[in-house]
């Protein structure tokens, strides 16, 4: 049994579809590389195209066909914003999709839904530790290290003895 991949567009997202394609959706016809199941909200007429406000758009595809289907959508001018897709598929398919649909790339690989201050300051990297942990080291050695840092007379005397 072939694995199924799923591409979902949720309520409020907008896709641009040609009139011919809308008619094929209405008849529940098969589209290249998979079946399109659609719940259409409002249709707004434009010159030569339709804008569809999607309630739910789910495309179920056989394994490895998702990029081919997105290519078909892109070539026929059916996708307005490919970044609207939420994709749950294999690593190979994800790479193929990224080649087809250029997603938005942001500076420092941030999340887009950040407040103004977070964007201004950038994304902070985790603090790198300057010194290695001294946990478990010899107590006498650590004591001598502390004295050496302070530059006390006791540390000088200990250094001269050795």
From TrEMBL:
Show the GO MF annotations.
Answer: structural constituent of ribosome
Keywords, A to Z, come to: Ribonucleoprotein, Ribosomal protein
What is the superkingdom listed in this entry's lineage? Eukaryota
Q: Which is a GO BP term held by this UniProt record?
A: cytoplasmic translation
List, alphabetically, the Gene3D superfamilies matched. Answer: 6.10.140.1730
List GO terms (cellular component aspect): cytosolic large ribosomal subunit
Matches recorded under Pfam families: Ribosomal_L29e
Protein family: Belongs to the eukaryotic ribosomal protein eL29 family.
Protein name per Swiss-Prot or TrEMBL: 60S ribosomal protein L29
């Amino acid at each position: 049994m072939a694995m199924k991949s799923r591409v979902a567009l949720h309520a409020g997202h907008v896709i641009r579809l040609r009139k011919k394609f809308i008619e094929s959706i209405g008849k529940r016809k098969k589209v290249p590389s998979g079946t399109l199941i659609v719940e259409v909200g409002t249709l707004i007429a434009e010159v030569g195209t339709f804008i569809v406000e999607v309630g739910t758009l789910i495309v179920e595809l056989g394994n490895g066909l998702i990029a081919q289907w997105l290519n078909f959508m892109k070539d026929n001018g059916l996708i307005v914003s490919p970044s609207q897709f939420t994709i749950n598929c294999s690593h190979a398919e994800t790479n193929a999709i990224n080649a087809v649909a250029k997603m938005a790339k942001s500076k420092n690989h941030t999340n887009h839904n950040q407040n103004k201050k977070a964007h201004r300051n950038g994304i902070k990297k985790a603090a790198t530790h300057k010194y290695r942990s001294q946990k478990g080291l010899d107590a006498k050695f650590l004591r001598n290290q502390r004295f050496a840092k302070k530059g006390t007379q006791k540390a000088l005397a200990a250094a001269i003895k050795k």
